[in-house]
## 1
Amino acid sequence: MILSDRDIRKCLNAGTIRIDPPLSAGQIGACSVDLTLSNEFWRFRKKVKKIDLATAKHDEVLELVRADSITLKPGEMILGKTRERITLPADMCGRLDGRSRYARFGIAIHVSSSVVQAGSDNRQVLEIVNLSPASITLHAGLRVCQVLFMRISSPAEKPYAKFGDIARKQ
């Protein structure tokens, strides 16, 4: 069951769902919460010409860029991170989606791995791709995606654990 705006507010007030920093006015929609882009981005290193997924390490392929804005060329992909840290209980999960207003300009805000696992306690890493024929500039603080919250049928036996990748680097 997807939570409504009323349910989301109840969960936030009760501390069942925690979002830090606290949400600003208007971030809660009818059944989702808008999340904002931080100033942390990961761009492919220029020297990378081939990636072997069996052995590739993020730090070898990507470089961290901290900036208030970043421009993507047509066809370029970067990783971004939400400013908000989401903490969920073991009986709740989320789903990330891009916002249609940016999709209409050719930006895919979240390409894959849209599940926010039960028990998560992190900021969300976003795969951002420019599918338009023009360069597009993103800014820190932009409401780039939304998260829907759902109750699951029973608490997860193995709530989400952090792994040694970009999602873990807070």
Note: The first strand starts at residue 18 and ends at 20.
## 2
Amino acid sequence: MPASAQGDAADPGRPGLAPGPEASRCFDFEVDFVAGWRCIPLCLRRKLDLAGIKLKLGHWIELSRSERQELVDWPDDAAALNAMALHLRERSTGMANGRVKDLPVATGEPWSGGVLPDAVQQGAVACGQPISPAQWTALSELERFALCKLARPGHDHHNLPRALAEFLD
């Protein structure tokens, strides 16, 4: 993280500098690709959505392992997300895939609310593990984000059963 946004992340008395407990959480079902950071973990995908940035896998691969870890560990408060977006715009300039793209900042997304999205329920039912409204609201925002991403139409749903088992068992 750039010095202007990093501060002293080891100092818990300074709010907004260290990630929240979910900001850098990688799930057990991601273990196959998280160990080498060969894919973008869902905790970072959430931050990218909240920052309004489209980071392609090609961008991710072009970053060093330490840069990838830095992004995973990046805090997720609003100021930090703005700093991350600026950092990624600057860092990706000159990359093979070009500069990262700006997207609308995620607001009012199904994963941020208390209503279980139909696509998630349909995916859960297809996996033999329907979700109750109480179970949905008991999930963390990051877990709801993951289920929404894994259950979206056109997505390879092979990790959905593993995610459901991890979150609901």
Note: The two ends are 36 Å apart (CA to CA).
## 3
Amino acid sequence: MLNPAFEAKELLLNSGTLAEKCMKCGRCSASCPSYGEMDIRPHQFVSYLQRGDAESLLSSTTLWKCLACFACVQRCPRGVAPAQLIEAVRLASIRQQGGDRINPDDIPAEIDNEMPQQLLVAAFRKYKG
């Protein structure tokens, strides 16, 4: 069952993009390098959220196939960002599962000095329960 905090309306708000501007031209999907691996294409993903069907998206393989390369964002003539919508649903899925998904002890010490601190902070914000 979907947590009320992760309803489509809330996900649209959390994404920071204006999905209502989507005109379903499909340019986002046409430019997606993961298109063949997705069960719900980027332009369809926008439609699902507009219809309020967030539950189907939570079980979609698209959540984990999106590379977040933002090719879809660059190609959109209306400024809609499907990658941001996918990321909002991905985060909702992670939070709904609960628990921590990252542990500081799992980061190998030899890469600590090479890794940007911003990356570490972002990862902990995203994957800590």
Note: Residues 4-96 form a domain with the Fumarate Reductase Iron-sulfur Protein; Chain B, domain 2 fold (CATH 1.10.1060.10).
## 4
Amino acid sequence: MKDREENRFEMHFVKGSAMALRHIIDRETGVNYLFSDLAGFTPLYNADGSLVVTKEKDRER
């Protein structure tokens, strides 16, 4: 469990962005976030207003 807690967040840099953007996935909940050093931190939402959630099986690809 300790290893899982230490690596709870999976980070990906967003290519082609003017700012240093990071796409972050919470491995425990699957919730996706967008982070910028300049603008802050926000969850990502689908068009219907629900949170973008990545299932564990989809992250393994």
Note: The longest strand covers residues 21-26.
